[in-house]
Batch of 4 targets.
Target 1
Amino acid sequence: MIWNLSTLFSDPISVLRELMYMIPVILISLTLHEWGHAYAAYLCGDPTAKNLGRMTLNPIAHIDPIGFLSLLLLGFGWAKPVPVNGRNFKNYKVGEAVVSLAGVAMNFLLVLLVSIVLVVLGRTYPAAFSNEALLSILLYFLSLNITLMVFNLLPIYPLDGYHVFELLFARILPAKFFLFMRRYGNWILIGLLFLFNRIGYSPIGLVRGWIINVINFFIVL
């Protein structure tokens, strides 16, 4: 979310209330995403993250202050990258793929869990949706984790999807392409975010809309 300063000053209570809903969702979502990377690396034979205290569910170990504030205020942010040493993997390619996708898998599980909760509440106790706090938290959980899941699958460095893309196409595409992506990937991401913000449309928003429509279908079924 990009905060409107006029709203901040004209209705600070509403802004603070929304922040109270958003902060725990961001902390839980980012923490589980990074924990997924660390735990997957450990299972694949690399104890680096565990030894550095990153295989934990303590948000303090994972949250980057600037990335957290950026996500909170601008709708785009990041956590501290989990340190991984691929030389420790029992199988390098498998380990790289599993670790790269583990964070996305955690966000998918959160999307699945919240979707089930929404469907069950909608079909058995629809009055629960009149609780503004509960509904706001569930919907933000859903929206944020769909965003993290889809965004991290983009094949752009340094996102998780890029590492899988590189594993799949390293022998097909020229090395210069991957050097270019590693050098300019961050700028490409910034450019895409700026473009999506200007046109008011993104593939992430499209996927989010599809999933919410599917959930609504099962609620009224």
Target 2
Amino acid sequence: MTVRILQRGFNFSQDGPGNRLVYHLQGCTMRCPWCSNPESIAPKGCILALGEEADRLCPFGAVRGGMPDAERCAACEKPCLAAHSRSLRMSCTEEDTDDVLREIDRSKMLFFDGGGVTFTGGEATLQWDALETLLTALHEKGVHTALETNGSHPRLPELFDRIDWLILDCKHPDDETHRRVIGASNRQTLRNLRAAAEMRAQLLVRIPLVGGFNDSEQDAERFAEALSCLRDGHDVEVLRYHEYGRDKWKQCGMEYTVRDAFVSDETYRQFCSILQQSGLHLIHT
């Protein structure tokens, strides 16, 4: 079985406890306009043009000013990759799950302070069969596992017994707003959130706080209501908007449309205060 991997690397405490080997899997079910990894959105990957020198590498003229034509590249057989150029590359690699497991076995000595392996994305559950295979094998080996997910897969609760640390992103409590901005419903996410709150002793809910999207007082109150199912041992983390991925959107041939979305200190404090007053436990990683 194969799995498409966007990137991998070690991270400490931000993607689960301890020092962790983090795998970003290709493909996503949502299209957040502020995404810091836009190259992860396309299920089969995309071409990234890294600089204007990439223009001359495309034999079909699909790269102009260092920006690829995303639609043309997606339909192409990608002959440009034969040049092994640093200026034009595919966003992901396709690898055998057995090779990934062997890599994890070689890395075990680095899983200190309660560390292990984290799968994120994109949206890792989009590659369901590969993810299930990897989580099952790691669970049997006694490796601590973590999953960061947008909660959109209807079968997510089936994996709960093989996930030691679950991070579930909740972007907006209102379905209509969620559909309009992100291009997908939030209903399955909220169903899986309630299931996780009922079935799991551990759960971390992350809210990306984006100015003009979900940072109002009313939004905070609706989040508090949506998260009222959380119990002792369940945590909430509010992450303020940043634009670290802005340049990547151009490299992928896509327009970065977010404007004036930074959240002030006062707005952040007020938002967090409303959640805390409702009884939710906030953390910072």
Target 3
Amino acid sequence: MKTLSKITKNIRSKNAGPFWVTVDLFFKDNNSFFYACENISNEKVSNILKIKKNQLKRFEIENLKVIKFSFPRKNIQGSRLDRDMHGASFAILFEQLLL
């Protein structure tokens, strides 16, 4: 089995507005991109993020070799309960994902 960190150049998470976070998976080559498209299920990702599967949006951008996952923030950006203003802490959850 491979981990996601072995086949990506970069894994990045960031704000997608005050209500959403996006995780970008940048792949090293086309083979890695297509392998990930087939082996990363929305169910796996929603389990990692502890969200309902229907809250997850997935975008596969072939010419950039990128898969993006967007999901609603549990706490609105900048609210009293928000502990990650920039949404940067989510990327680490993906690094050891087994494919």
Target 4
Amino acid sequence: MEESPSVIRVHPDPLEPYAISPGWRAGGLIFLSGQAAIDEHGTLVGEGDFDAQLEQVFLNIDRVLAAAGSSRARIVKVTIYLTDMGNFPKIVEARKRYFSAPWPADTIVEVRSLALPGLMVEIDVIAAG
């Protein structure tokens, strides 16, 4: 019998005020909500500093994946949202720093803005459970 989908919980949960789950486990996969440069208390990290924001995004990804019993090494797909495609070279370097071969599948898009003013990057991931 297939396991029912289940929500992934973290405490404190900075997404709770927005009625968003940090992620879901379903069918052997883990689906994370987009992670941005917001710390566990909901405070924006690194305003105007792309590198600091990217570091916080990956801290958040690691935190939610750990709560799900998974890890960054099990990520199979990332979707990256940038407010400035001029940061694309930094994303290429970040892929090499935060992942290893075989590389996750990837989609990257430029967007006009993200959920909160000051956010420069958001990443959602799918990982094996």
